[in-house]
Write a structure and sequence with these properties.
385 residues; alpha+beta; four-stranded mixed beta sheet; four-stranded antiparallel beta sheet; 11 helices; 10 strands; globular
């Protein structure tokens, strides 16, 4: 698939690729696997200056998207991040910014600091023992079905109680955008990580350089100004944030799968057996042809979803779930086949294929599994019937 990009977008993509190749080659990624954070804050600030955090923000906050398609711009970056198996809190920061930028007057200082890379924000959505319930929302349009995190009125502000898990870069975050239940329905609050009562327990993921954590809110007292949005506005913001996170996660998986495919094609051409290159065997050609077809379909659905999100199209909700479910189902299968085509060397620690397999497997589970998104698609069809 050829994605129609503007000259500015091509420059953005190519600059991102060069930056990643120069700063986090695969040797650096392997070295970061043993670090506590999985990435370096100084490196993230350089990435922010490159424009990774800018598309979702307006010019007053130091951001902006020249073509006016911020989700597509971010998708270009995400695909390159996946191809490099690069570290960093790109997805969660982008998702949080997509919610904050609805209120630039209220959150201007925070947005500016995040865009500059000086502050790191993470979206706290998931709750222990629960899937992505926001996809299963039914009934009232003013509520997201989360029950474990409560923002109760207290002394002119709020008292926040509950636990969030699978929070990306939790131990590095300066701020959390917390989705909770308030007295009038869904509410989202900005919570500084150093607020008394906030406890972060670092975790790990299958991906060598991606970290999540568990964040506990033990009667955390917050002012009224901590509320970013509530009620129907909060539900709309959560939906927008989920669209951003799901599309970018899918794009990362597409990038990682594309790089694994490139390595496998090179291997099949170079590796000889019975006096012939592996690439000459028809059965293997058929397997790679299938994989290539699936990969192009994954890329097409991802960029189509990004385009609809940028356009504010009513079909974006379904398109995002189509992309995330298809990419989540197909990319692990493709990379697993790449491992098999490499033979014994493909399952060694020294070979890089497992880095890509880790990235797509992690991406499959985050921000909606294929099963969750397929269920959401059937719900949308039922509602339209």
């Amino acid at each position: 698939m050829t994605v129609d990009l503007s000259p500015e977008q091509r420059l953005f993509r190519d600059t991102t690729r060069e930056f990643l190749a120069g700063t986090v080659p695969v040797e650096k990624v392997r070295a970061l696997a043993d670090s506590a954070a999985g990435f370096e804050r100084a490196w993230w600030r350089r990435a922010a200056r490159l424009g990774w955090t800018a598309p979702m923000a307006d010019e007053r906050s130091g951001g902006g998207s020249i073509p006016g398609n911020p989700t597509t711009d971010l998708t270009l970056v995400a695909e390159q991040l996946g191809a490099a198996c690069a570290p960093g809190p790109f997805v969660t920061v982008s998702a949080a910014l997509s919610g904050l930028t609805c209120f630039p007057d209220h959150c201007g200082d925070v947005i500016g600091a995040v865009v500059a890379g000086e502050a790191l924000i993470s979206w706290a959505l998931y709750e222990p023992g629960r899937g992505l319930d926001v996809l299963a929302r039914g009934g009232s349009a003013a509520d997201v079905p989360l029950t474990g995190t409560i923002a109760a009125p207290h002394a002119g502000g709020y008292r926040l109680t509950g636990v969030k898990d699978r929070v990306e870069a939790a131990d590095q975050a300066d701020l959390f955008l917390v989705t909770a239940l308030g007295p009038a329905g869904t509410v989202q609050l900005l919570v500084p990580a150093d607020t008394p009562g906030v406890t972060v327990s670092p975790g790990w993921t299958l991906d060598l350089v991606r970290r999540t954590g568990r964040v506990s809110f033990d009667e955390v007292l917050l002012p009224e100004s901590a509320v970013v949005h509530s009620g129907a506005a909060a539900v709309a913001a959560v939906r927008r944030q989920l669209h951003t996170a799901a599309v970018l996660t899918a794009a990362e998986s597409v990038g990682a799968t594309g790089r694994a495919m490139e390595a496998t094609v090179g291997w099949l051409r170079d590796r000889y057996t019975f006096g012939r290159p592996l690439a000459s065997y028809q059965a293997l050609k058929h397997r790679m042809a299938d994989n290539k077809t699936w990969l192009e379909a994954a890329r097409a659905t991802t960029y189509a979803a990004a385009k609809l999100v940028d356009a504010g199209d009513p079909g974006a909700d379904e398109a995002v779930s189509v992309a995330k479910s298809y990419v989540g189902a197909k990319t692990p299968v493709i990379v697993q086949d790449c491992v098999q085509l490499h033979g014994g060397i493909g399952v060694t620690w020294e070979h890089d294929l497992h880095l890509y397999l880790r990235r797509v497997t992690y991406g499959r589970a985050l921000y909606g599994t294929p099963e969750e998104h397929r269920r959401h698609i059937t719900d949308l069809i039922d509602r339209a019937a």
